[in-house]
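Question thread 4412

I'm putting together a teaching handout and wanted feedback from people who do this every day. The idea is simple: show students a protein as raw sequence, then show them the structure tokens that encode its fold, then repeat with a second protein so they can compare. Below is the first pair exactly as I plan to print it.
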Amino acid sequence: MRQGIRRLLECCMETSAFDSVFRRSDEVNEYAFSIVDDPAVQGRSLFLFVNYMDGHALYVPPPPYNTLFLGGDQAIEYPWQKVIECDLFEKNRGISDLAKARLIGQYDGGMASQDAAFGQLVEGLKRRGICERALIIVTADHGEAFGERGPMEHGVSVYEDQVQVPMLIK
């Protein structure tokens, strides 16, 4: 029933947001700016923790990032991402090269969306005169796997693709 309703709605609107389980980066920025702009914090020291989740499964980046890295391929919708995950975790099956490429394309779209949002966050802090006096630390909590050695996403692993993350300090 969910898929039927979705197909009907796709005729008149973008439906990928239905699958998102986290706030998108632009929504996170809106909330962060509402805190920074609050008169109660003006002129005071502030610790602002901004956590973007666009690179996490389910991979449903917003337009235009949802197709940016897919070429002519279609995104893999939520139900099929769950089937692939179940095949890997519960049935110990592999993932096809096409499915893997499409999932990575969607993941890359999420990362590009996150990157753009971070740029907008920094620009917003600059416009508010905060960036120059701010300590900014950028890092990640983990990398992501796409069935290279069995599992997808992240979890209990010591492989570099999941544990080696960047850290930038300004």
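The second pair follows. I'd like the answer to focus on this one:
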Amino acid sequence: MTSIDEASSVSAPAFGDVRRVAVVGLGYVGLPTSLALFQADVPVTGVDISARRVEEISHGWPDLLPDDMALLRAARQETARFRVTTAISALAEVDTVIVCVPTPIDESLAPDLTMLRSACAAVVSCARPGQTIILTSTSYVGCTRELLAEPLRQRGLTPGEDVYLSFSPERINPGNDTIEHFEVPRVVGGATAECVSRAAAVLSRVVRWVHEVSSMEAAEMAKLLENTFRAVNISLANEFSDVAHHLDLDPIEVLQAAATKPYGFMPFYPGPGVGGHCIPCDPHYLLWQLRRDHIHPPLISSAMQGISTRPARIVDRAAAVLESHGKTLRGSRVLVSGVTYKPDVADTRESPALQVIGGLVRRGADVSVHDPIVPEVEVAGTTFKSLGDNVRDQDYDLVVVCCRHSRANVPLSGELPVLDATYRLPTHANTHMP
């Protein structure tokens, strides 16, 4: 473990000798990473192929936590130390490159490596001797070696001799400010020991601890384990909530009772499904890789199947709630409240609410949506505009709550049936859980 105070003992050049770091990909991971580097007095060039994203950042419009937004305001005033661009050629001007692009899955649950391959190809094309290259995007085991190490060798740049290549999985939790970026340890594995040392010297500027592992592959596998662990336990929590409903028990009461045990238990909460580009995606990178080797891990496969079918369970439950009130789903006016994948983050990637909306529409419901931080969403080619502040639950036959933000949610009268897929609302006579 290398602490921030021990960074000078790392067998890399003093970080003060590094002129600038480039961060490739300025999304929910790359932009906070760039700002953390800026806060540590490291000159940063942010690179993103999206002109719209670069414009958002340049004008101070992105969705960020208040502390990061304050950092961005400061960074925008210091263009010598912080700049953003769409120019890939900027990668040749820096000493360190950090790759932070998304790694989603496609409709068949296979890895979509389009953005990662493109980013890695750009990094390789601009690489020069002496650079440190750190991949942080979650992917399959062996990805760093396949997409960066081998192409670099083909260019005549040997990792560990000419360039210094490592994998260090990102650990940013968008929208969560309970744990500071600086306090979250980083795992790093490199092509050689020197690669690890150089990456650790960079990362130690923005986190307190760097945990070094023996290889890039070990670091890649560690990230897959982190999110697979969460996926399996969320799937279990969802399954227990179904069992509790069958036995006429409150699943949250049961969960909170179990969580009083001070050891051997970690609470995970049920919900309408999982979203973002971590839990619903990352385990599929491992499953995809294992399928190629004809290996079938039953626990992980079952958990991911449970996660993927959870939104359909919400739609079935919505139909049952309406039926208990003498109505059918077809023709009923259903309001879906909260369409982001987590509270207070304007991010709808893989959001289960979108699948719930699609399922309701396919079964004939007249669907409206409300989300105070997302103006509109597109589902199966149809754009749903978020209703304004004057929305009333009395105008609908059912409200399905998929995500609840800290402000400006739909006011619930207590008279209309509410399907609380978050399990977080105060219960009343007409509140139902999946």
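Top answer:
Good format. For the second protein you could add a caption like this: The CA atoms of residues 224 and 282 lie 6 Å apart. The chain has two domains: 2-224, 259-432.
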